[in-house]
Amino acid sequence: MKILGIETSCDETAAAVVEDGIAIRSSVVASQIAHAKYGGVVPELASREHLRAIVPVVRMALEQSSATFDGLAAIAVTEGPGLVGSLLVGITYAKSLCLARNLPLIAVNHIEGHIHAVVLEAGAGIEYPALALVVSGGHTHLFEVREGFTYRLLGKTRDDAAGEAYDKVAKLLGFGYPGGPIIDQLAPHGDPRAVKFTLARMKGNALDFSFSGLKTAVLRWVEQHHLSAEIEARRRLQGASAQEFLPLTPQPTLDLLASFQYTVIEELLRRAAVCIEEIGARSLIISGGVAANAGLRAASRAARLACPVFFPTPALSTDNAAMIAAAAFPKLRAGQFSDFSLRAQANLALA
Ligand code: KG4
Ligand code: ZN
Fold this sequence. Notes:
Elements: E1 2-7, E2 12-19, E3 23-31, H1 43-65, E4 72-80, H2 84-101, E5 105-109, H3 110-122, E6 130-135, E7 140-146, E8 150-156, H4 162-172, H5 179-186, H6 212-224, H7 228-236, H8 242-245, H9 251-279, E9 283-287, H10 294-302, E10 309-310, H11 314-317, H12 322-334
Parallel strand pairs: 1-4, 4-5, 6-9, 9-10
Antiparallel strand pairs: 1-2, 2-3, 6-7, 7-8
């Protein structure tokens, strides 16, 4: 049973065909580069770019999979959370395709999609209950995942998401957008213990996250170290690679990046370890854009957690539609379809 997945929640226009929830027949992702010069996603620009890309991206996904509309069992689309204008493009297009081709429509929560990016690849290797740490530009959430895909929220960020903190620090220091991959590649050149950042202490739910204090601490450090000349030099290199930024990044700044990344990883893995104990998790799933981080992958292996850790391959870590089609498969089998009243929901919760 083949499902066409469509994902437009942020700044990637994506479509994919996945068979039986496990076999990716095609996965096309068009990343919008128009936002780079603004140092973050501009919602109005994102919707317009989705409108431009959606038809060719879906067509390409079908062509590459050799599937036709007649061979599809359903069309799945992200209903939220995300940017409403962006979500609407995918939802409206999915609805029109379903109407024209008489196909069932399946709504998928974007966060559930990120979890299924891992399920899609690891399949039966994942034992339940599992703990899912979803870390991206929009979310930093911990969920208990039970057999049959029911979810319980254990903790979440109270302010910035981890990826957002990466992007803001990168912007502040004159690196491009998105900042995660650049900081990830530059951090190994610095000393992670050079700058001591305090870990966030949470009142109330100790499993919640906060990254705004860390972001402010980085800002203070930058102000105290008079970096305007190097920042300006990097800003002129708009869109450069980490290798190109390296000669323009003195050792103290590399140390700052390494220390920032070290602290983010500490925050994430410290809470994950507590949750694993609390729920008796038999697997840890780490997904979302920040799951592409090489430092996080290495640290999670070195941490000797009480259960095995599963990451998606880097291409499935960041936003894609294969994860949406995969998350839709159990819903298809359970007959959980949507009608045409489906709406875009900016703040849709998973649990
Ligand atoms: O999942 P995603 O593509 O979109 C959202 O749902 O937000 O995640 C994008 C986020 C961005 O904040 C980006 O900077 C971050 O993931 N990211 C990374 C890495 N690759 C992407 N953060 C740290 N290290 C990376 N290698
Ligand atoms: Zn995402």
